[in-house]
Amino acid sequence: MTESDRGGGSGSNFSASHVAAGGGIAGSVPGVRVPESLRHADLAAVWLIARERLDRSGSDRRGTVATPELSSAAMLALTSLLGRRPGTRLDLAVLEHCLAEVGVGSDLDEALTLLGAPASAVAAAARMGAARRDAVKAAVTDATALWPEPWAAQWAEWVVRTGQTSGMAPADATSLLFRCRAVLDMIDRATES
Predict the structure, then answer these.
(1) Residue 124, Cβ density class (10 Å: 0-12 exposed, 13-18 middle, ≥19 buried)
(2) In three state form, how does the secondary structure of 104-122 look?
(3) pLDDT tens for residues 37-75?
């Protein structure tokens, strides 16, 4: 890559209409310089194909996507990024690593956003929902981990699986479990008397 490619160049190959159509550099992030060669308009097809895969697969971004037909300038830029000419399939793990090596994002999702291919609103909402569900599941599991009842782990899994904690924040789920524990302790005390 040239000095211009490392962020020292001027201008961009993306027009406002191209950005509005979903390609190009969507915006700048302080301290992040996207190499000029990666701003080539014809590379938008690569970024969009990778984004579509992430939107479908979520955080599981391993695997390959078809390498789109590229102009010679875009192929040169992609070859320079990857360190070799891409084949018919583009390995997303390799793409992620190479983009991180040149300072474009810490992961593929962030890099694609910086390159003008942000996550769709639906995909972003789905990822946020999955992350929230995972956090709630972890909170429920942690809250019941020390319960003496032998059925506690199975019950905690049932609580999450059946949607009893649906829409709750992890702290709310934990609070609910503490109240359940208090009821169980009251029952234990009542049956001991």
Answers:
(1) middle
(2) CCCCHHHHHHHCCCCCCHH
(3) 898 899 999 999 999 998 888 766 678 999 999 999 999
